[in-house]
Amino acid sequence: MGAALADGADLDRPQGRMSHVERNRTAWTEFAPEFAEWAPRAWGSDQFEWGVWHVPESELEALPDVAGMDTIELGCGTAYISAWLVRRGARPVGIDITPAQLETARRMQAEFGLDFPLIEASAEEVPLPDASFDLAISEYGASIWADPYRWIPEAARLLRPGGHLVFLVNGPHMILCSPDEELPAGRKLLRPYFGMHRFEWDGTGGIEFHLGYGDWIRLLRENGFAVENLIEIQAPPEGAPHRYAGLPDRDWSRRWPSEEIWVARKRA
Amino acid sequence: MSDSERNRAFWDRESDSYQATHRDHIGRPEPRWGMWQLPESELRVLGDVDGKDVLELGCGAAQWSILLAGLGARPVGVDNSERQLQHAREALAAARLDFPLVHAPAESVPLPGASFDLVFADHGANRFADPRDWVPEAARLLRPGGLLAFSGSTPFEVMCWNQPADHMDAELHVDYFGLHRIEDADGPVQFELPYGEWIRLFRANGFEIEGLREIQPPPGAESTYRSAEETEWARRWPMEQIWIVRKDA
Lengths: 268, 249
Known about the structure:
The structure holds 2 protein chains of 2 kinds. Helices cover about 35% and strands about 20% of the residues of chain A. Chain A is an alpha/beta fold. In chain A, strand 3 (about 70-75), helix 5 (about 80-85) and strand 4 (about 90-95) form a beta-alpha-beta unit. In chain B, strands 5-4-3-6-7-13-12 form a 7-stranded mixed β-sheet, with helices on both faces. Chain B has a two-stranded antiparallel ribbon with strand order 1-2. A two-stranded antiparallel ribbon of chain B has the order 8-9. Chain B is an alpha/beta fold. Chains A and B meet through helix 9, helix 10 and strand 10 of A and helix 8 and strand 12 of B.
């Protein structure tokens, strides 16, 4: 029950090893051209769809009414969520550690005539003042690529009292059942649940972070959040396959959650 | 037969052998939780109970309530099984204590609303009554700001039950989506929910979520409920958890 303590070592970067931020910037610089290709479709959509199963926000209702809100997207990538937020009347800011992803986001801004600040920064260390946002959101962004023991406190700092924190992660079922190689989860539990925190998958180059349920709740509470909801996404029965080699298929994701959205609120 | 009647019959039938099998393991001199009897003094789930009105849902032989009475609480024990309550009455007499024991299912407790500061269960009624019925009932019984804490099984335990082989293993056999009512051929009906459903159920009944303690038994932990192999499993994946939620003030 001490993932936070168990990972104390990661806070002091071992000599000669790149930090997870550097590793993930390198990995995402490699992934960026692929995401640049898909960015126009996401930017062009009127709907925000969560995760690889494209479940619409209108169905999940994970977000509050965002009109008039100051929002920050933590690990925005090509910033399609912020594009949707600005269309809904929010004042978004997107941050990401990867310049190549931000370049795509800027090109999309020009193409779609939408403008909002984009900042190169890690969600673990955001160069913005305290209490300046009403909503912090992350979908496959900082939520899995930044260390939660650093980015959750940072999100708490950035949010105003009563502010919303909404983020999508893969969840323990998938992480426990995913092989070391970048292959979809099967049914066997391949690693222990206790101590879940930092994960490296062979061949992807990046470093991910995933916690168990109790650890998420404890971390959120310790940072002044009330836990409001946990939306476990079940893949819809029909539809096209997703394009990610490391994520489980539709049949698996009909039975067990491959994605989960935590909804929390900073106590007033 | 309703689930409640079926579980009542099960516990009336099994009570004597249950108490005989587990009496020494769970009859400790200080409050301890769950299958591996981890001390409350370490887990610190309940806080100070002195002077509090406490309701135990599924009290069995009232081992917990008797210990909490010794710590200054005013306990009430509820159980769906008359035979279990018979054991509780004997234990109260032996401890020279007197507090109310109520024969009722946890989803329908014949006591007034807002009369308890703490409602809790240790693998009690929470496992054998439908949470969609007993959680609202616990909310009704608690005063504003009151605590609800209960230990029970986990979704992982349910999902990894290999039915044909009749044991747990390291593989998902049962679907997570739709997890709710678990029926054994000749055993009791038990209940477990997905994590998100628990959270929504608590919120819908006016509870704030304070914690989810996922119990990892220490190396070599012993249990009359679990084999050594099962305890080894439980050192890797959660087999027991304690939800801690507080009714909004």
